From TrEMBL:
SMART domains xrefs: RHOD (SM00450)
Domain Rhodanese, residue spans: 313-401
Keyword Nucleotidyltransferase on entry: yes
EC code(s) of this entry: 2.7.7.-, 2.7.7.80, 2.8.1.-, 2.8.1.11
Signal peptide annotation: none
Recorded GO MF terms: molybdopterin-synthase adenylyltransferase activity; molybdopterin-synthase sulfurtransferase activity
PANTHER family: ADENYLYLTRANSFERASE AND SULFURTRANSFERASE MOCS3 (PTHR10953:SF102), UBIQUITIN-ACTIVATING ENZYME E1 (PTHR10953)
Organism: Agromyces ramosus
Transmembrane region(s): none
Name assigned to this protein: Molybdopterin/thiamine biosynthesis adenylyltransferase/rhodanese-related sulfurtransferase
Enzyme class: transferase
Region (Disordered): 1-20
SUPFAM superfamilies: Activating enzymes of the ubiquitin-like proteins (SSF69572)
Keywords associated with the record: Nucleotidyltransferase, Transferase
Length: 402
């Protein structure tokens, strides 16, 4: 990566994305005075930002980190797409929302944060789930697309929509202590699909709910994404074209991975079924099979943090350990019942009852199979513990008997 001293302030990539708007009023010059004095920036760059229209997908960890910086930098119009509401578990990392916002739409809470920073910034709220059917209409009229989502179907959807619309896509991803940020722009370089041609298998994907995330990683990656938007709009600096930046917060190290466009990659001509492409059941298709068959084919998982919450709150539940007796002797979750997977496979296991069942093993390979078998036998409320006792012991050591 070039140091600031070796990269020209006027940039080394494509021309500025946005034409400058009207001259700045005196109060706007005063507001952005510390930014206007940056080498190679000046009033012209600030006027470009004022005329820019940026669409941000996601108002969660990344969105709540990067959107305030876009507003602070002077972006004139910010669109926000998110259909979710604020929950208590969001607040440790989604710092643009507060306790008073619990239950509110995230787009409303984040829009108010922007207004508090700069009342002149126009916020367009899109309180919907982004799909292949609606993204074209939502994206129309925006100059830049920013993806701060937390799932692979949306990442491939935004990539393809950006290619078809001819706009650059700034993307980021976070999990645990790590993060990535990059730029996808088909007109000038490789895209997200060139870096990740094939999505990972669903069983290999951890969400923030199941894997956890360090809040400051959201801030680090979100600020990198916001900076990339500013560079795109103004033409200042060197764009992340063909490069992805990765951050390891535990070691304090970052590195850069270079990649190129795949020469024989299929041309993107239309949007597809992205849930199916990523190996997931598309929303709204559950009616094509019986409810029991659907549940049996895909048992639900529960995170260690959620199980801990349910145990602490006194919710009635049955903990079912499907490991071997010798494993259970070494450690087990207090209050659990032992039914080895072989016994469950042979038709044994817990009897039908009213209490929800949480199945666990050392990791979660055996528990997924056991949960599926129990659902097939008529148990109506069965989940498996993602990461097994291995992850639960890291979260709630006092509840693990050794």
């Amino acid at each position: 990566m070039h140091s600031p001293s070796t990269v020209g302030a006027t940039g080394t990539g494509p021309a500025p994305l946005v034409e400058p708007g009207a001259p700045l009023a005196p109060e706007r010059i005063a507001r952005f005075s510390r930014q206007l004095m940056l080498p190679g920036f000046g009033e012209l760059a600030q006027r470009r930002l004022a005329a820019a229209r940026v669409l941000v997908v996601g108002a969660g960890g990344l969105g709540s980190a990067l959107v305030p910086y876009l507003a602070g930098a002077g972006v004139g119009t910010i669109g926000i797409v998110d259909d979710d509401t604020v929950e208590l578990s969001n607040l440790h990392r989604q710092v643009s929302h507060g306790v008073g916002d619990l239950g509110r739409l995230k787009v409303d809470s984040l829009a108010e944060t922007v207004t508090a920073i700069d009342p002149d910034c126009r916020v367009v709220r899109h309180p919907v789930r982004l799909t292949a059917a609606n993204i074209g209409g939502i994206l129309a009229g925006y100059d830049v697309l920013v993806d701060g989502s937390d799932n692979f179907p949306t990442r491939y959807l935004t990539n393809d929509a950006a290619v078809l619309a001819g706009v650059p896509l700034v993307w980021g991803a976070i999990l645990r202590f790590h993060g990535q940020a990059g730029l996808s722009w088909h007109e000038h370089g490789p895209t997200y699909r060139d870096l990740f041609p094939v999505p990972p298998a669903p069983d290999e994907v951890l969400s923030c709910e199941l894997g956890g995330v360090l809040p400051s990683v959201c801030a680090t990656i979100g600020s990198l994404m916001a900076t990339e938007v500013v560079k795109l709009v103004t033409g200042v600096g060197e764009l992340l074209l063909g490069r992805v930046v990765t951050i390891d917060a535990l070691s304090g190290r970052s590195r850069e991975i270079a990649y190129e466009a795949i020469a024989d990659a299929p041309e993107i001509t239309t949007l597809i079924d992205y849930e199916g492409f990523c190996g997931l059941e598309a929303p709204g298709e559950a009616g094509t099979v019986g409810d029991a068959a659907l549940a049996a084919s895909a048992p639900v998982r529960v995170s260690s943090a959620e199980l801990l919450r349910r145990i602490r709150s006194g919710e009635p539940l049955r903990l079912v350990d499907v490991r071997e007796p010798r494993e259970a002797e070494l450690r087990s979750i207090r209050g659990s019942e032992l039914f080895p997977l072989g016994e469950v496979t042979a038709g044994g296991g817990p009897e039908l009852g009213d209490a929800p069942i949480v199945v666990y093993c050392e990791r979660d390979l055996r528990s997924r199979r056991a949960a599926r078998l129990l659902l097939e036998r008529g148990h109506s409320d069965v989940v498996y513990l993602a990461g097994g006792i291995e992850e639960f012991a890291a979260v709630a050591a006092d509840l693990v008997r050794r």
